[in-house]
Specification:
The chain is of the alpha+beta class. It is built from four helices and eight strands; from the N terminus they run ααααββββββββ. Strands 3, 4, 6, 7 and 8 form a five-stranded antiparallel beta sheet that branches. A three-stranded antiparallel beta sheet has the order 1-2-5, with no helix packed on it. The mean pLDDT is about 90.
Length: about 230
């Protein structure tokens, strides 16, 4: 069963993700309708899962290699004197063993959290359950324009998604004039609340965007979009 791109592929990364989820689920679970009883069961599941990945499975693999080496040494090796066969690893205080199906229960819980009316993007990011999108999937910014009333008159709202980038570099022009820099925005949406040019009762504003990362604009320009203000 797949958890989507929010769940890591490597076991080392899974240990980190599971440990983080165990810290956050007692905070956000009750908000999204997860009972205290279920949260405690989830913590039991995660404790055993992490213990298996970090301790039990690596140790049993090591024991198996040791036993195979001992078998081959005894059958076809050489030397004199007695030798002891390797002892299996002993685990002091292992966590309680839950029922099988830990991953299925966890992903079912996450699906119910996402379906909750109280769920939002902030909770999703804090729990680590929002799928990650690589920056290479979106070579140019995508955005939409909406003309709406602001505090001092009409304004243009620019909605966009960062797709893992630091932000966007925005350029604009008015009534087919020259392009000029408008803003760098790292928090969506951006509001263009400039007043109309003196003498204009309305004007056409065009916008184009590039990605902004590590204090530099880069990449191809987006498609140009227009909005009429006034």
């Amino acid at each position: 069963m797949s958890g989507g791109t929010f769940f890591p592929n490597t076991e080392a990364e899974q240990v980190v993700w599971l440990s983080h989820y165990a810290l956050k689920i007692p905070i956000h679970g009750p908000i999204c309708g997860i009972s205290d009883t279920e949260i405690q069961a989830t913590l039991k599941d995660i404790a055993y899962w992490v213990w298996m990945l970090q301790h039990w499975h690596p140790a049993t693999q090591h024991d198996a290699k040791e036993s195979t080496a001992h078998k081959l040494r005894m059958i076809s090796g050489s030397g004199t004197g007695s030798t002891n066969h390797p002892q299996p690893t002993v685990f002091p205080d292992p966590p309680p063993i839950p029922e099988p199906g830990i991953q299925k229960r966890l992903f079912s819980q996450i699906a119910r959290i996402k379906a909750s009316l109280e769920f939002n993007e902030s909770i999703g990011h804090d729990l680590g359950i929002i799928a990650k999108t690589t920056t290479t999937d979106h070579p140019i910014p995508e955005f939409t324009l909406t003309v709406e009333m602001g505090a001092t008159g009409h304004r243009v709202r620019i909605d966009f998604k960062k797709y893992g980038h630091d932000g966007i570099w925005i350029e604009t022009r008015t009534n087919s004039g020259e392009w000029f820099f408008l803003a760098i925005d790292t928090v969506k949406p951006y509001y263009d609340e400039r007043p109309l040019t003196p003498g204009n009762t309305h004007e056409t504003r065009e916008y184009r965007l590039r990605w902004w990362d590590k204090s530099e604009p880069h990449g191809e320009w987006s498609a140009v979009q227009k909005a009429v203000v006034g």
